[in-house]
C-alpha cells in the first residue's frame, strides 16, 4: 500500500487549495493533534511534507511523529505558530508565502484608518436606520490626510502601508532594525517605538509576529501617543500589550484603535467589543480571492520544489 507523502495539517483549506496540494503529491488531512497521533505508523513514515494554514502550533513533538518529514510549508507570511528552532534542529525546512499579500494587507490598513477617522461604519448605520432622514446630521469626524503616521516595522508590508500614507500627504516615521532606503523626509527612529509614538498621531503596527515582538507596542509607547493617538494593528495580536491598550482606550488616554488581530482570536476581549472608539475586523487583511489564490500557488511552489529536488522559493530557515 502506498501512503500519501503530504500531510494537510489544518482543516481551513478550501477545495481549490487542497486540489493544488494534491496536484503536487497525494495528501492526507489530519487537522488535529489527535488525528495525527492516530495515524498508522506506516502512514506517518510516508509523510515528507506538511502543508499548514492558520495559527495552530506545530511543535517539535508534532514533527517527531513524522520521522521522514523534510519541509513544513506555511500558507501565509506569518510562521510564528511553527517552532522554527525545533524544525532547524531536526533538519526540517520551513517556508512561507511572503510578498503576495503585501498589497491587500496595506489596503486594509488604510481602509481601517479611513473608516475610523471618517466614521464610515456609523455613517452607514445613520443612513440605513433612518437617522439622517429624520433630520440628524452625522457629527463632524476627523481628517486623516496630512497627519503624522508611524509605521512600527518597516518590512515589505510596512513599506506598502507607508507608500499609501505618503500619497495622503502624511509625514512618515518608522521603526526597523536598520534604516531603510526611503524617500527624503521619512524619519527613522531606530527600534525606539516610544520615540516613534511621541512623533505621530497614527500608529500602524506591522512587525512580524513571534516571541521577539511580543508586546512590541508597549504600555509606555501607547501612552506616548497621547489623546489624539490611534492604533492600527494588522500584524499579530501579540505585538501589542492588549491590556495596556484597553486601559488607554477606556481612560481616553488615546483616541481610538482599529484592529484586525487580537490576543485570543477569534474570541475577542469583551471590553474591546464594548468600546465605541474601536473598529474591529475578523483577521481578514489578506482575505481576497486573488491573494488567497496566489498564496496557495506560492505554498505549492515550495512543496513542488522539495519533491523535484529544486531550491525552495521562500525558505525561512
UniProtKB/TrEMBL annotation:
Keywords: NAD, NADP, Oxidoreductase
One Pfam family it belongs to: 2-Hacid_dh
Annotated Gene Ontology cellular component terms: cytosol
Record-annotated D-isomer specific 2-hydroxyacid dehydrogenase catalytic domain positions: 47-317
Gene Ontology MF: a single term: NAD binding
Protein family (similarity comment): Belongs to the D-isomer specific 2-hydroxyacid dehydrogenase family.
Name of the protein this chain belongs to: Lactate dehydrogenase-like 2-hydroxyacid dehydrogenase
Amino acid at each position: 500500500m502506498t501512503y500519501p507523502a503530504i500531510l494537510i495539517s489544518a482543516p481551513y483549506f478550501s477545495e481549490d487549495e487542497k486540489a493544488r496540494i494534491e496536484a503536487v503529491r497525494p495528501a492526507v488531512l489530519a487537522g488535529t493533534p489527535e488525528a495525527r497521533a492516530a495515524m498508522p505508523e506506516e502512514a506517518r513514515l510516508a509523510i515528507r511534507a506538511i502543508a499548514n494554514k492558520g495559527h495552530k502550533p506545530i511543535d517539535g513533538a508534532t514533527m517527531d511523529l513524522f520521522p521522514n518529514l523534510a519541509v513544513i510549508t506555511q500558507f501565509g507570511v506569518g510562521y510564528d505558530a511553527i517552532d522554527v528552532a525545533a524544525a532547524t534542529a531536526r533538519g526540517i525546512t520551513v517556508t512561507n508565502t511572503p510578498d503576495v499579500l503585501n498589497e491587500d494587507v496595506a489596503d486594509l490598513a488604510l481602509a481601517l484608518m479611513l473608516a475610523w477617522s471618517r466614521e464610515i461604519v456609523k455613517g452607514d448605520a445613520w443612513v440605513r436606520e433612518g437617522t439622517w432622514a429624520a433630520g440628524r446630521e452625522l457629527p463632524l469626524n476627523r481628517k486623516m490626510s496630512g497627519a503624522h503616521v508611524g509605521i512600527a516595522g518597516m518590512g515589505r508590508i510596512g513599506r506598502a502601508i507607508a507608500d499609501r500614507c505618503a500619497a495622503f500627504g502624511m509625514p512618515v516615521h518608522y521603526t526597523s532594525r536598520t534604516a531603510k532606503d526611503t524617500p527624503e523626509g521619512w524619519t527613522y527612529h531606530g527600534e525606539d517605538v516610544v520615540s516613534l509614538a511621541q512623533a505621530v498621531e497614527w500608529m500602524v503596527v506591522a512587525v512580524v509576529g513571534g516571541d521577539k515582538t511580543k508586546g512590541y507596542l508597549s504600555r509606555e509607547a501607547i501612552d506616548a501617543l497621547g489623546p489624539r493617538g490611534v492604533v492600527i494593528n494588522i500584524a499579530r495580536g501579540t505585538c501589542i500589550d492588549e491590556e495596556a491598550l484597553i486601559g488607554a482606550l477606556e481612560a481616553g488616554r488615546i483616541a481610538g484603535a482599529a484592529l484586525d488581530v487580537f490576543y485570543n482570536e477569534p474570541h475577542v476581549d469583551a471590553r474591546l467589543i464594548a468600546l465605541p472608539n474601536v473598529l474591529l475586523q475578523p483577521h481578514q487583511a489578506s482575505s481576497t480571492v486573488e491573494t488567497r489564490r496566489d498564496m496557495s500557488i506560492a505554498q505549492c511552489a515550495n512543496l513542488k520544489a522539495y519533491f523535484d529536488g529544486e531550491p525552495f522559493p521562500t525558505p525561512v530557515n
